[in-house]
From TrEMBL:
Residues 33-100 form the Secretion system C-terminal sorting domain. Residues 1-20 form the signal peptide. This is Por secretion system C-terminal sorting domain-containing protein. Keywords: Signal. InterPro entries: Secre_tail (IPR026444).
Length: 107
C-alpha cells in the first residue's frame, strides 16, 4: 500500500512540475539569430515578441556596441557592417527582468 501511495505521489509531483515548467517556458522570449556567422546584417526572431524590452550587442570584452529598444515586433535586423570581425554577445532583456544570451560571429 505504501508503494502505491509513493508511486502516485511521485507521478502527481512529476505532472505538476512539467506543467509549471511549460508555463514558464511560454513566458520567455526565446530568440533565434540568423545568419550566424554574419557579415553585414543579422536578424533576431522572437518566439514571444511582446515579452522583449530591448536587445544589446556587446563586444567580447563587454563593451556595448549596439542597443535597440523593442516594440513588440517578431523580427529585428541589425546592421553590423561597421563592427570588426570577431565574436559578439547578443543579450535580450525581457520585461520580467530575465535575459537571454547568444553568441554572434561577425566575419
Amino acid at each position: 500500500m505504501k508503494n502505491i501511495i509513493l508511486i502516485i505521489s511521485f507521478f502527481l509531483f512529476t505532472i505538476g512540475t512539467a506543467s509549471a515548467q511549460s508555463r514558464f517556458d511560454q513566458d520567455k522570449a526565446t530568440v533565434s539569430i540568423y545568419p550566424n556567422p554574419a557579415s553585414s546584417t543579422f536578424t533576431i526572431k522572437f518566439d514571444n515578441p511582446t515579452k522583449v524590452n530591448s536587445v544589446s550587442v556587446y563586444s567580447i570584452i563587454g563593451n556595448e556596441v549596439m542597443n535597440k529598444k523593442m516594440d513588440g515586433t517578431a523580427r529585428v535586423n541589425f546592421n553590423i557592417q561597421t563592427l570588426k570581425k570577431g565574436k559578439y554577445i547578443v543579450r535580450v532583456f525581457n520585461d520580467d527582468g530575465t535575459t537571454e544570451t547568444q553568441s554572434l560571429i561577425k566575419n
